[in-house]
């Protein structure tokens, strides 16, 4: 019988990118939002981003689910993001994500 980790390794490779936003993100994101969303949509169209969105109420961060992409490519995505370049994301993390329930 295969372990859950072994079963997950046989399918697509996923990562979670978590952004921590500045407290006043909603007020400050305006000038950068279109380019920020365009970068995410480019990864979505390439089949490398499954979904993404803001987290919290009020908004305190964002979550991105990537698949079949390298951690280095996600790092490049982060560094190119206008939110990061303009100080709206003071912290982020990238972690492997093993889907064990649900349809990838």
Automatic annotation (TrEMBL):
<feature type="domain" description="YCII-related">
    <location>
        <begin position="15"/>
        <end position="96"/>
    </location>
</feature>
<dbReference type="InterPro" id="IPR051807">
    <property type="entry name" value="Sec-metab_biosynth-assoc"/>
</dbReference>
<protein>
    <recommendedName>
        <fullName>YCII-related domain-containing protein</fullName>
    </recommendedName>
</protein>
<dbReference type="InterPro" id="IPR011008">
    <property type="entry name" value="Dimeric_a/b-barrel"/>
</dbReference>
<dbReference type="InterPro" id="IPR005545">
    <property type="entry name" value="YCII"/>
</dbReference>
<dbReference type="Pfam" id="PF03795">
    <property type="entry name" value="YCII"/>
</dbReference>
């Amino acid at each position: 019988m295969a372990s859950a980790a072994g079963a997950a390794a046989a399918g697509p490779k996923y990562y979670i990118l978590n952004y921590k936003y500045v407290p006043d993100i909603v007020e400050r994101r305006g000038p950068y939002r279109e380019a920020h969303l365009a970068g995410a949509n480019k990864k979505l169209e390439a089949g490398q981003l499954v979904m993404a969105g803001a987290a919290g109420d009020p908004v305190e961060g964002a979550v991105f689910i990537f698949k079949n992409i390298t951690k280095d490519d996600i790092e490049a995505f982060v560094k190119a993001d206008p939110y990061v370049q303009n100080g709206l994301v003071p912290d982020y993390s990238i972690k492997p994500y093993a889907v064990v329930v649900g349809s990838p």
